[in-house]
Amino acid sequence: MSMMMACWKQNEFRDEACRKEIQDFFDCSSRAQEARKMRSIQESLGQSESLSPHKMTKLLQRFPNKSHLI
């Protein structure tokens, strides 16, 4: 997106001069949208990656549950 904006600024916001940058941006955004859809489908089907025991232990050590006394 920054490449497209920089091109627009250099070419006084003319789309014709920045056609390649605009197309690259649309291609990138469509790939990102497809990736989000696939990730959502995988999560809904329970196919998302789970954390390894080592990673889970590290996270629990970094963010422990603190007990509260009443």
Automatic annotation (TrEMBL):
For this UniProt record, the keywords arranged alphabetically read as follows:
Disulfide bond
GO BP term, example: mitochondrial translation
Entry's InterPro entries? CHCH, Cys_alpha_HP_mot_SF, Ribosomal_mS37_met
Q: Which residues does the UniProt record annotate as the domain CHCH?
A: 1-28
Show the stretches that span the lipid bilayer.
none
The answer on whether this UniProt entry bears the keyword Cell membrane reads no
Please give an example of a GO cellular component term from this record. mitochondrial ribosome
- A Pfam family of the record is CHCH
Q: What is this protein called?
A: Chchd1 protein
| Record organism | Mus musculus
What lineage does UniProt assign to this protein's organism? Eukaryota, Metazoa, Chordata, Craniata, Vertebrata
